[in-house]
Amino acid sequence: MKKTAWGRRPFAECVPELVAAARGDLEATLVIQNIRLVNVVSGEILPGMSIAARGARIVYVGRDVSHTIGEETKVIDGGGRYAAPGLLDGHCHIESTQMTATEFARAVLPLGTTGGFFDAHEISNVLGLDGLRFMLEEARSTPLAAYMQVASCVPSTHPGLETTGAFIGPEEVAEALGWGDDMIGLGEVMNFPGVVYGDDKMIGEIQATLAAGKFADGHFTWKSDDWRLPVYAASGVNGDHECVTAEDVIERVRLGMYAKMRQGSAWHDVAATIKAHTEGGLDTRRMILVTDDRSSESLMNEGHMNFVVRHAISQGVKPVTAFQMATINTAERFGLSRDIGAIIPGAYADIILLDGNLADVNVTMTIAAGQVVAENGRMTADWERYKLPATAYHTVKLNRTLTADDFAIAAPVADGIAVARAIEVVENHVDTLERHVEVNVKNGKALPDPKDDLCKMAVFERHGKGGGHALGIVKGIGFVKPAAIAMTVAHDSHNLTVIGNDDELMARAGNRVAEMQGGVVMWTEEGVTEFPLTVGGIMSDKPFETVARESEAISQALLQAGCPLNNAFMTLSLLALVVIPEIRLSDKGLVRISAEGIDIVPLFL
């Protein structure tokens, strides 16, 4: 990695100092004594152990490290607590927390997360490489062992299916991978049909990644027994988080891929996928626990990787095995096991101390890069805040004022009944279902009936590239009163998306989001709830605690309007993501994802 204020220097630069400190010729800067070591390399728990570190790296692990202690050494009595490697998130989009990298670090370090692999394709879809660059530079300023991936999906498929704020191709991938060793690879390759059928852009991006000696992550949503999964794997993509069944995990592992098991805020896949190990008996060394997306309120109320590890243990995974799946397995997937993922000599001193039973994952101290940064759930370290560039702001270029007429759906008949394709939301899952529903038509306009749990949905291009928009119908929102939600968090193109059952309220909500320069607005006859997101229209520059409160207020407003979905806002934010089955809406139209590929289909049958 690049040198940082936290002393995360390349291993080779540190060797003379590390060896001298291990001998005792140089004193350790930190010693932790009397701990039960969770050795994720050997799969053991070793009592009566101690750890010595100098600067950001560990120099000695053993029963007696007294020879490393000097006058300036900070000595911590572990009191018999467990000491485990800091937890790693193997697939995460920081922007999906609606926080900057600084506030994300403040949120997760007290929870035991000391590093991760971050695919900044959300901000990249808005601002391209400029957005990726400032995310990387800000992450470097934090205590986290943060590794960034170049977005492969800008756009997620191609410009004919959606409009994004930028474009990233093979040349841009090659450029970004040269920014440092912490640019670890290519982010999830969502255009899996493009890879399978030889799309020049996708193949070129993967080639640029492999040529740089980096790693390509995947996103394959066809069935696990589809003959094209081995084709996808042949490209060099060897990690995938789109596993929703045990069979998905089994087939990927058998092909040499890393199967990432996801427990986000709104998609709960660990209980099903972990059965590949607990019932299928597969070796877990190529299985990784990840979050993908967790909201700020989930971080505050449930946790981060500590929550995911605890959940895996509750599903029958042995505690040490679960820790392996969030530490050493993750590090090995990205070729970084000398630096992170284990408490071994030479590795970064990213260590967590845990009280009580190991299965409780009760983190009471977090050490990152050899410094105590959090205790008892609170940050104890601070650092100079990164200043975001001016280009991070004022990115909503709607260039129009919305009216109720913008939400009128033209029907194929003048009056009577028409059959339309509706997007049905599936709670706690990323996929949707295509439903064929009857809608009333009057004067040539379709009138989806809220009594049938139908809402209108609109996506407006907001990057200043033509201002097109498309309309659709959504089933399963649950509104029981006139209501509308508008947001510029709409993966992955992040155009302005509006969902509701009242055209006037939809226009008001959409216009207010544009006025705020991004965010979320929930509008009912009783009042308005706002969640401003002025950084790229998808993140807030406010403190973590404020972001969590504002996010939770949107959740409560949705619930009060009748929407019962768990983490409803995050679920709704995926309804424009045109690479996940079965059907979505972009600014170009209704997009269906099938075994044959990804195509625009008409709203009415």
Automatic annotation (TrEMBL):
Protein origin, superkingdom: Bacteria
SUPFAM superfamilies on file: Composite domain of metallo-dependent hydrolases (SSF51338), Metallo-dependent hydrolases (SSF51556)
Cofactor(s) named in the record: Mn(2+)
Keyword Manganese set for record: yes
This protein's UniProt keywords: Hydrolase, Manganese
Residue ranges of every copy of the Adenine deaminase C-terminal domain listed in the record: 432-594
Transmembrane stretches, start-end: none
Amidohydrolase-related domain sequence ranges: 83-373
EC assignment: 3.5.4.2
PANTHER family the record matches: ADENINE DEAMINASE, N-ACETYLGLUCOSAMINE-6-PHOSPHATE DEACETYLASE
Identification of the protein by name: Adenine deaminase
Protein species of origin: Paenibacillus cookii
Taxonomic lineage of the native organism: Bacteria, Bacillati, Bacillota, Bacilli, Bacillales
